[in-house]
Amino acid sequence: MNNNWLKKNTFHHSEFKDINRLVKEKTRKNLTIALCLPTLNEEKTIAKEIIIIKSELMTRYPLVDEIVVIDSGSTDNTRKIAREYGAEVYKANDILPDLEAFKGKGENLWKALYITNSDIIVYLDADIKNIHHRFVYALVGPLILFDNIKFSKAFYDRPIAIGKSKIRPTGGGRVTELVIRPLLSLFFPELTQIMQPLSGEYAGYREVFEKIPFPIGYGVETSMILDIYEKWGLDVIAQVDLDRRVHRNQDTKALGRMAFVILKTFFNRIEKLGIVNLNTEIFDEMIQYNLVRNEYKPDIFKIQGVERPPIIEISEYRKKFNLT
Amino acid sequence: MQTYLDKLPSFVDAIKSIKATIIANIVFIGQVPAPTFKEKKRTSVFMDRLAESGVDECSTDGYRNPIAIIRGTSETKPPIFVVAHLDTPFDAETDHNFTIKENSIKGPGILDNSVGAGVLASLPEIFRKLNLCFKSDIVLAGVIQSMGNGNLRGIRHLLKTWATPIRGAVCIEGGDLGRINYYSYGMIRGEIDCDIPAAKEWEHQFKPNAILILNEVINQILRLSLPQRPRSRIVIGKISGGFKHGTIAYNAKLGFEIQSDSDKMVRAIHNDIKDIVDGIGHESGVALNIKTISNLRASKLEYNHPLVKSAMAIMEKLNIQPASDPSESELSIFLSNNIPAITLGITNGKNYHLENAEMEIEPMFKGIAQLIGVIMAIDSGICDE
Fold first, then answer.
1. What is the greatest pairwise CA distance in chain A?
2. Which residue of A28, A254, B241, B381 pairs with A250 in a disulfide if CB–CB is 3.0 to 4.6 A?
3. Which of B18, B50, B97, B99 best tests the A interface by mutation, with the highest count of A CBs <10 A?
4. What are B243-276's pLDDT values in tens digits?
5. Which residue segments constitute the domains of chain B, with CATH numbers given?
6. Whether B27 and A52 lie within 8 Å, measured CB to CB
7. Structural contact between residues B99 and B361, judged by C-beta atoms closer than 8 angstroms
């Protein structure tokens, strides 16, 4: 396997810390940048993300033009807090209301393309405990400075918060190492150079995002990588080391459900590409068991593999952006 | 004085309009662990924040206290110091990531003293927002090695090596809003250690228990009679020791502080405690040692000092209820160097010294306005002879 890409297209966030240079280049190229935060009950972390980005990359340096929160129907104060700290806040279901509504992160990211107006869209998960503006400027850095880069993806050490106020220095990324990396090694070895294909922080040009489908749930990161790779090749992708990201720890069962969706998305893609022929039905229920009063009871999660089409095919979108 | 007093209420909203910048500074600085003696990383973030805010000079002194200077218009007026200590009692393993809620920020050390340090780093932006410039240079100093065993080394060094006179100073602490300190007790902070060698043969007699020995020390300290005047007290503030429930403790440690209006009385009480320790150590045949980890001279501004009076007037104008207590902090070092100084609290909060400490956001803007008012008052000459 040729690992030239790894050497050429891997950056460290410190390479983009001259934010003035980014702003200058952004202005010269007449670009605009939107930050999108997909949320579902993120009242503990959302305020800090908004306030840091607003203070550092809107007030101090005019790098970001829009901060948008797309919410899946939080039952806590996420929307209220986000609004209080100055983000534009939307309920996913209120966007493109004539379409059938779905609930999921991918749905929110897809709808953000309709709501925002910018040329570059940065997607950050809303549960980052150690948010720093490098999460944004380092992702847009390669997009602004290098004409060939159209999509950039974050990677980092992933310490996870455990217990009360203690951090364990390793861990996290289990689904990456146990699921997606083996699959990529089997079918797309070149893509194993992407350190964390499932990281929830990435940025790209609208012209890329609008032309790819978005699975409505967890599969969105997997499909995005595969689709961009298939359509434009690996050279349009960059990855940026953001050092460290502290996030909530998820239990094994939750990770199992995430792995189920990713596997389903992956199989769907490789079959579509004619790489394999499954020749059998794939089910859409993840079955997990719990021991309840000495009896094993199944927990069944129905996860439909719904995908939104490339948004450029949606008439409302074409109308808003004057696409003929 | 009336001119700037009248402006203060309008300052509150103007300061609030740059809320994001102020909170970002509090978070960026406070999220970097800075246990006393290990403040290097926080110092560097603090300097970065100040440098980015466009101060005229930004560097560290010989002791690595980070210092920024905003140049004043006068070439003859001495500088005004604004200081906040950077260290915290929390170790680097503690998760320092803060949670910002609708009306509050929560995390270890937020009140002591991330708010102080963050507000200090925000002052250049706040001055710009309020269109303020001063005759004096404004020296913004984040001081290190302040707490506990740090023994205020950072500020001691800074003032010892500062070559020119200082016009006045304000020390910033996170909480509480209304706090105004203008006097310090004389103080000796000490530790008593009891160590019992594990290897020593004790079969012919009862093996002493380090905790019980310290208990006897405490009993004898409590029997000391302290005078009403000068006001004096002994605070037994920390105790630790032992290994496990079923084993006689072979070590124990006691932390105490003697506080008094009179330095002489502090020394006399310290001698009494030393006698107690020597006596019990001799009688029980164990290693019982007393050591001083910090001391301060009693110092104060009079209640009718113009700085105190002005600060009170500023608080009244902003409807802040003043509460004055003695403070053993950077303030003591300024006062003992004959520099007029006060300490101000910026906002309210709870769980002050716990990992889940929480500050209120809204009162902070008034707290900052009072700080600006006091700086303006000093700049107008109230501390000048």
1. 68
2. A254
3. B97
4. 889 888 999 999 999 999 899 999 999 999 999 9
5. 2-184+299-379 (3.40.630.10), 186-296 (3.30.70.360)
6. yes
7. no
